[in-house]
Amino acid sequence: MAEHHSAEPYEGMHLLADLHSCAGPLDDADEIATALREAAEAAGATVLEVNVHPFGEGQGVTGVALLAESHISIHSWPEHRYAALDFFLCGKKHDLDAALAVFIDVLEPERVRANAIERGYGAEMEIVRR
Hints:
The chain is α+β, with helices and mostly antiparallel strands. Helix content is 21%, strand content 42%. The chain has helices spanning 29-43, 96-107, and strands at residues 10-20, 47-54, 61-67, 70-77, 82-90, 111-121. The longest helix is centred in the N-terminal third of the chain and has 15 residues, at 29-43. The protein is globular, with a radius of gyration of 16 Å. The mean pLDDT is 90.
């Protein structure tokens, strides 16, 4: 596969977060949609569309904020008081910690585990193939 470097280097961050023992509304599609919009705003991102699918009363939701800069998504399991979040934003100007803080305020987890991964092209990086 040939490498293509005609564009300026791109840098992004991908934050994966697990929210455990949540006391907040894991099954409320409207609350989750609002949190997706507020998280994008807190990060300084541009919302193109928000779509949240509820799986029924007492069941979880799957939601995504499609952003000009990429996406924020959530999958929730109220029966386990758990939510999995995925924040992927390009550029250094975005505040992923502020976006995560919105969900922490809304979902009230007792424990949060978060991992950030640098993403991008055009920069020097190690190539790993499996």
